[in-house]
Amino acid sequence: MRRKSRQDTVLGTARHEVLAGVYTIDPARSIFGFSVRQAVVSHVHGKFESVEGFLEFDAARPGRSAALVSIRTDSLDTGLRARDAYLTGPDLFDSSTFPLMTFRSTGLAPVGDAEFRMSGNLRIKDVELPLVVDVEFAGATRDSHGRNRVGFEGTATLQRSDWGLTWAQGPDAGGVLVSDTVRLTLGISAVRVGQEAPW
Hints:
With 199 residues, this protein is mainly beta. The protein is 7% helix and 51% strand. The chain has two helices and eleven strands. It has helices at residues 14-19, 81-87, and strands at 21-25, 31-38, 42-48, 51-57, 66-72, 76-77, 100-112, 115-124, 127-142, 148-159, 178-192. An eight-stranded antiparallel β-barrel has the order 1-4-5-7-8-9-10-11. A hairpin with a 2-residue loop joins strand 7 and strand 8. The longest helix has 7 residues, at 81-87. The relative contact order is 0.22.
């Protein structure tokens, strides 16, 4: 767990009550990443470059907080163009038919100091299933442009076959199977509505 800076605040303080409200995700400072095991001993790492959405942040009553995250599937980047083209093509994400995948929260429960378990539904293509995300509150502050900003980090694990993503190999895999287990990592920075970042 990372050490909090002076700009960070402790969940439940009076300042957080002031910061409670609706925030829009800052796409330039947010990331939706993943990793999947390949060839047993190696991993493929990737991220989606286009992430948007909203957070409804209630610091005094975090259980009432909510999130909606939308990711463009054609913004996938694994560092290899041929692999990206295959993964976003009709055999997998089929980005031309299903340009977005979404996560909508259904509940939030505290599990520790600034740590929460967020329940929600992840929709990929035409399949929507429950997903639990472990979330850490990274801080709330007023940034150098005078905007109220909040940050969160999250992780989740899913079985891609549950969403119909059942490929076993890509054009670069050399016939080596790819694990069904995918680890997701999220880094979200969001700005209070009406104070969106200019870039």
